[in-house]
Design a protein that fits this description.
This protein is α/β, with parallel strands linked by helices and 333 residues long. It has a single domain, classed as Ribokinase (UDP-N-acetylmuramoyl-L-alanine:D-glutamate ligase, 3-Layer(aba) Sandwich). Helices cover 35% and strands 28% of the residues. It is built from ten helices and 13 strands. It has a nine-stranded mixed β-sheet, with helices on both faces. Helix 2 packs across helix 8, helix 4 runs parallel beside helix 5 and helix 8 runs antiparallel to helix 9. The chain is globular and about 60 Å long. The termini are close together. The mean pLDDT is 93.
């Protein structure tokens, strides 16, 4: 794709409105330096210099979208704790609409804490409670969706395997979206074996795709178009999910797009240097869906998403990509 075609697609981004549904996480980063080993145990002592916070999980998908789209809504579960307050403040700062959030005083907001020293992640600490919505909360979520559905262009379902997404909730969301003629894409979790009937695209990474297809791990083959195991997994998942397309992220090998009416299409990775892969998959599903809603073909949307991912892995932390960075990547070619 050339820069002119990208700009033709991107000019429509600002008018789009999307809804992200999924597990919400607060990402906490503790930054510091290591100067010595602890006398208490053979572990490094991190001298903390600063702490930063970002919207994580499905909220990071919304954050990536908001950099481009006109309006982003977020549906998910939070507690009534300090972490929820911090997350809502971050969402407000990103101008992400909080109208579909469901607060539960008995739920603990999920937090992932990463301790980083000298640009290297030392350890991650997860504080999470895996729990779905109650029947009453599902009713509340669907009422919020009904009020929103005709004013949005697409829906991204982001499954981090924390319990929010059940078959009942997914079926209700997808059926409403199909009736309203809206695009639905999914970032699945292999630990949550849901049926994704009626969605446009599903985006697992390579290991998730193999796990979901029930195939043993195999080492990647270069080029991926000759990776027989990968091709078999892609075909199996296309049949299983009966989706229009399947987008498999391959890390340093880029992206493979399987489409119902075309041969598998491989797009090489764009990253020059990788610092942190945190949230890279969020960037892919966000930009892919946004581009589809803007009129891009699946192949064009995959290329835009691949370029965006290549930019974001060159940054530390749960990062996002800007329009200027993405547009510049086309200029460089």
């Amino acid at each position: 794709m050339n820069r002119a075609r990208f700009q033709q697609i991107a000019t429509r981004f600002g008018n789009l409105k999307l809804l992200v549904v999924g597990d919400l996480i607060l990402d906490e980063f503790i930054w510091g330096k290591v100067r010595r080993i602890s006398p208490e145990a053979p572990v490094p002592v991190v001298e903390v210099s600063r702490e930063t916070y970002y919207p994580g999980g499905a909220a990071n998908v919304a954050r990536n979208l908001r950099e481009f789209a006109g309006q982003i809504h977020l549906l998910g579960l939070v507690g009534c704790d300090d972490h929820a307050k911090r997350l809502k403040t971050l969402l407000d700062g990103e101008q992400i609409q909080p109208d579909c959030l469901i607060a539960d005083s008995e739920y603990r907001t999920i937090v992932k804490t990463r301790i980083i020293a000298h640009h290297q992640q030392m350890v991650r600490v997860d504080r999470e409670e895996k729990r779905g919505l109650t029947a009453t909360q599902i009713g509340e979520a669907l009422r919020k969706l009904d009020a929103l559905i005709h004013g949005i262009d697409g829906i991204i379902i982001e499954d981090y395997g924390k319990g929010l997404l059940t078959q009942e909730l997914v079926d209700a969301i997808v059926s409403r979206a199909r009736a309203a003629g809206k695009i639905v894409t999914v970032d699945p979790n292999p630990g949550n074996t849901l049926a994704w009937n009626g969605v446009a695209t599903i985006k697992p990474n390579r290991s998730e795709a193999f796990a979901t297809a029930g195939k043993p791990h195999s080492e990647p083959v270069d080029p991926p178009t000759r990776d027989t195991a990968l091709l078999e997994v892609g075909e199996a998942l296309m049949r299983r999910w009966n989706t229009e397309s399947l987008l498999v992220t391959l890390g340093e090998q880029g992206i493979m797009l399987f489409h119902r009416d075309n041969s598998p299409f491989h797009i090489p990775a764009q990253a020059r240097e990788v610092f942190d892969v945190s949230g890279a998959g969020d960037t892919v599903i966000a930009l892919f869906t946004l581009s589809l809603c803007a009129g891009a073909t699946p192949a064009e949307a995959a290329e835009i998403a691949n370029r965006a991912s290549g930019i974001v892995v060159g940054k530390l932390g749960t990062a996002k990509v800007s329009y200027e960075e993405l547009s510049a990547s086309f200029e460089q070619d």
